[in-house]
Write a structure and sequence with these properties.
oxidoreductase; Rossmann fold; 14% strand; D-isomer_DH_NAD-bd; 323 residues; D-isomer_2_OHA_DH_cat_dom; oxidoreductase activity, acting on the CH-OH group of donors, NAD or NADP as acceptor; NAD binding; 2 domains; six-stranded parallel beta sheet
């Protein structure tokens, strides 16, 4: 619910929330100092940005918040209820599976998202991982570090190979355009595609890249059955959400040698646990949600956040309102 401006109201507090990892863990990417600093630079003087302590329960820290900025942090019903004068939940991303939207709706609190603001950035990271795994870049760097004779490791070109994109939205479309520029054939499925199309894509593709949103229909979408359909020696990329891919099934596929390479920029928990052996497998290239990290993404996210915070205070229509 949008509230009209009032000079008697206390300052609007825009609080950046984080997942609650152990104190020594890294904060989620969207709550990085660089992103927060840019938002602080363009916020009006009456808006105060407060960063959350991931080692403390969120509900204890948001009692005076007027706006919550979840990023990758979990915002549940208890957290929404704890903010007595909450007026807006502003998510600087297209994904919102970490927010209890129904709880916000029950309180009359609007939820906004930022669709398409990091599409090119995520597509670039997917392409980087595809190239690194295809050309065995990490192994090549190790070979160079040992100053071994030139001649290995022997990778594969992307030209003439088939890329299967699961989720042909903004990110998938950007990746498809780049891949075609490298001479790849592109297959794609969407949320409305029949199951048979997904199975055909998995069986035919040399590289499969996941870019679908996390919904009840896509949770665990890629499991043992789907991985078994993939070509031996295929590459799998996940820039969607960690839970789209079944972790144990992926581990089994890696152990069996089914997959030549796996690129993960999204994870089942963020920050990812340090003791998961999957991340130490030589075929796995893991990145820290790099698709959401660029100067340009931070600039766009800060702009939409600041705009909606001002719109909320002034009672104007919100941009990209979800609920």
């Amino acid at each position: 619910m949008n509230l009209p401006p009032s000079p008697r109201r206390p300052p609007l507090h825009s609080e950046s929330l984080a997942h609650s990892p152990p104190p020594c863990s890294r904060p989620p990417p969207s709550s990085s100092p660089a992103g927060s600093r840019r938002l602080e630079e363009i916020l009006p003087p009456w808006a105060v940005l407060k960063r959350m302590d991931p080692s403390r329960p969120l509900a204890e820290q948001v009692r005076n918040a007027r706006v919550l900025i979840p990023t990758t942090g979990m915002v549940g019903a208890a957290d929404i209820a704890a903010a007595a004068d909450l007026r807006l939940v502003a998510q600087p991303a297209a994904g919102y599976n970490n927010i209890d939207v129904a709880a916000a709706v029950r309180r009359g609190v609007p939820v906004t998202i930022a669709p398409g603001y990091n599409s090119h950035s995520v597509a670039e990271v997917a392409l980087v991982m595809i190239l690194m795994l295809s050309r065995r870049v990490d192994e090549a760097r190790a070979v160079f570090g040992r100053r071994e004779p030139i001649g290995g490791p022997v990778g594969h070109e992307l030209h003439g190979k088939r890329l299967g994109i699961v989720g042909m939205g903004r990110v998938g479309g950007c990746l498809a355009e780049a891949a075609r520029g490298l001479g790849m054939e592109v297959l794609g499925v969407t949320s409305t595609s029949p199951r048979a199309d997904l199975e055909a894509l998995l069986a035919a593709s040399h590289v499969v890249s996941l870019h679908c949103p996390l919904t009840p229909a896509t949770a665990g979408l890629i499991g043992a059955t789907e991985l078994a359909l993939m070509r031996p020696g295929a590459i799998l990329i996940n820039c969607a959400r960690g839970s789209v891919l079944q972790r144990d099934a992926l581990w089994a596929a890696l152990q069996s040698g089914k997959l030549r390479g796996v690129g993960l920029d999204t994870h089942w928990a963020e920050p990812a646990p340090t003791d998961d052996p999957l991340y130490g497998h030589p075929a796995v290239l893991a990145l820290p949600h790099l698709g959401s990290i660029s100067a340009e993404v931070y600039e766009r996210f800060a702009g939409i956040l600041a705009d909606n915070i001002v719109r909320c205070k002034e009672g104007r229509e919100l941009l990209h309102r979800l609920a």
